[in-house]
Amino acid sequence: MSNPPYPEINSKRLWRRHLDMAKIGGTPGGGVHRLALSDEDIEAHLLLAEWAGVHGFSTDLDSIGNMFIRRAGSDPSLPPVASGSHTDTQPLGGRFDGITGVLAAFEALETIHEAGIETRHALETIVWNNEEGSRFIPACMGSAVYAGGEEVSDMLAREDRNGVTMGSCVGALKKALPQAGSRELGAPIASFIETHIEQGIELETNGNTIGAVTGMQGYRRFEVHVIGEDAHSGTTPRARRKDAFAAASDMTRALRELLWDEEDEIRYTVGRFEVLPGGISVVPGRVNFYIDLRYHDAGKLDALGDRIPEICRAHAGPCEVEINEFIRQAPMAFPESMIAGVEQAAARHGFPHQRIYSYAGHDARHAARLCPAGMIFIPCWRGISHNESERAEPDDIAAAAQIVTDMLIDQAV
Ligand code: GLV
Ligand code: MN
Ligand code: MN
Description:
Blueprint: H1 11-23, H2 39-54, E1 58-61, E2 67-71, E3 81-85, H3 99-114, E4 123-127, H4 141-146, H5 152-156, H6 166-176, E5 181-182, E6 191-197, H7 202-206, E7 210-216, E8 218-227, E9 231-232, H8 244-258, E10 267-276, E11 282-283, E12 286-295, H9 298-314, E13 320-329, E14 332-333, H10 336-349, E15 353-358, H11 364-367, E16 373-378, H12 394-412
Parallel strand pairs: 1-5, 3-4, 3-6, 6-16, 7-15
Antiparallel strand pairs: 1-2, 2-4, 7-14, 7-16, 8-12, 8-13, 9-11, 10-12
Helix pairs in contact: 1-3, 1-12, 3-12, 8-9, 10-12
């Protein structure tokens, strides 16, 4: 697969590690349900730390629950050259979103270590906490806090739907890993490369193994609370109702019209819609729903997102509506040096490759605030992701891990 000084990764071991990880939170449908810092997610962290210990790599945690597995370099004054992703999944998610980037990074560390290659910079596998944002809002919490984009105290106070705080979960992770050292938030990183399944169909359609990611589209997310009045469904005529569901469905319908484009490039999703109190014979007095809007052009994303509050208010009828934009990220571009680094390594090994844009969000967005960052995409069967059927091929995963290995060597020696 490669010539010295780039040692060949162990693809069998890498695939075995995927299978081992897929058992943690594995679902009957063949997927993985491993919400951020749940018992299962903590177990995944422990397994990684155990594998790290075999080689004498150290494990550190920071105050927002990011984990750093480190192979020391010969010059301790230099910042680490890093790779990684996340171990958490969506509810009933897949076996590859996140963990593939963590395991590719860890395989690179092991390969370089076993080849006896000394590097000046330390090498790190980073597990960013709560990338998916489905248990705790917002997504990419760990990487955002590390890079200074969110306040740590605010994020630690965030609660899941059962009132459990992120702070208590980070405490549980620290308790489960008493041997872990501590890492300062924002401590310098020399560079960061993240492997991820594409979650789209471009690589598969083009028959390419590797995508050198050029940038990421932006997104805006809103929570909308529609407040009406609970009422008896048999005795309350339409004229006296304050039906929060009726108002919310008018809002989401009007937004669908606003956010419809011929080119099919605007991404508008309502992925959570709660009707309360939830009685079949109760006119609902409350609806909470969440809007995820994504687009690749900053100006148009701004303009479209700015219309959301006005559209919701216009369709509130007799109800009240509260709208809060809880996260906003502009489209971003990765530096040319990292894109070219992926292409060069892919060419070296004869992996068919192309440049590709990311329509999903990833931790590398935040890492890019601290250091040169980039991403490697691999094909994802039929583009299916955030789904138990998510699938990636062992050979493609191995190709990405080989590129990570090469890039870590290039940047760390
Ligand atoms: C990441 O999971 C995203 O929603 O883009
Ligand atoms: Mn992911
Ligand atoms: Mn995801």
